[in-house]
Write a structure and sequence with these properties.
By secondary structure, the chain is an all-alpha fold. Helix content is 86%, strand content 0%. It has one domain.
């Protein structure tokens, strides 16, 4: 293979890797949004119980879970927005033939992965908070049931 053929193969391989990376990031973002949004929606089923029995069990864990899931959604959207800006910047360089600028890592790219890691941690924190809320609510309900049967 001559040098031109090798460059063509390398460019095709780099293009395929870039597409795969973009698809993977898109799927991760969708998953985070579905997890956080779905958990937030499902947990709203407890609102009627909260209004009815607000003094029986602490709601700080539920509020903590809701806060974590909302922050996970915001963080995911921020990371997704930065990804789009970075891709647009690189595409702009490529369309203008600025190959050396396109090969450099954009400054905003360094924030994307930490935001995604934070979003994952927030989703997990939300599930932990919701789990603690459920445990405390169930214990409080058992105590009330026991007191009513005496």
């Amino acid at each position: 293979m001559n040098k031109a053929d090798l460059l063509q193969v390398a460019d095709a391989y780099q293009g395929e890797l870039s597409r795969s990376k973009f698809e993977q990031e898109t799927q991760r973002d969708k998953t985070l949004v579905l997890l956080a949004g779905g958990a937030l929606t499902v947990s709203f089923a407890f609102i009627s119980s909260l209004v009815e029995h607000s003094r029986l069990f602490p709601v700080r864990w539920l509020i903590s879970a809701w806060t974590a899931w909302v922050l996970a959604l915001v963080t995911t959207l921020a990371a997704y927005t930065l990804s789009i800006r970075v891709y647009n910047q690189v595409i702009g360089f490529l369309s203008r033939g600025q190959w050396s600028a396109a090969r450099k890592t954009p400054k905003l790219a360094k924030y994307i992965e930490p935001l995604n890691i934070a979003a994952c941690a927030l989703v997990v924190w939300g599930f932990i908070g919701f789990g603690w809320f459920t445990i405390h609510a169930r214990q409080s309900t058992r105590k009330l049931e026991y007191a009513l049967h005496l």
